[in-house]
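Dear support,

I submitted the protein below through the web form. The confirmation email said the job was done, but the results page showed an empty box. After a refresh the structure appeared. I'm attaching both so you can tell me whether what I see now is the final result or a partial one.
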Amino acid sequence: MATAIERLETVLNAKDDEIRELREKLDGAQRLLSAAREGWRYADVGPSADAPVPRLELLYIPRPHWDDYQVHYRLVMRHLQGHLVAIPVGCTTIEGGEPNVEPDRLPIYDGSHIAHDSGYLSLPAYRIMPGRLPERINLDQYLIQVELGRAHRLEEAT
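What the results page shows now:
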């Protein structure tokens, strides 16, 4: 049987772990806030370093509930100084549904936007999910938006 001091030490250790996790979350939130003020941020390259540059991407960030994601729609390009930058284009929250189970399911608005912009800018579109390699998004179900983007590009060229 544990003594009162041992129980107290166990509780204090658990609280120290909790404080450490909260500090990490706060640091991450402060970095995101700083980046939002600047209007762009360095790309979280990680496993997406293998994806082509420039590209359009949907970066899936898990939220506390197991089937909720925040999806950042970004243009990733190499800056003049040689580093990658990710320029935010949009942000959508998916509540319910599992992107791992439904791989062709894209966020409603940003899914259409990335298809249009892929056609307009002639850039590949990628999905970046935690723990997986970058995967090129199959835009077959969005052919209308892709073709509309290409048509808009051609209109502006004339």
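Response: this is the final, complete result; the empty box was a page-load delay. The chain has three helices and six strands.
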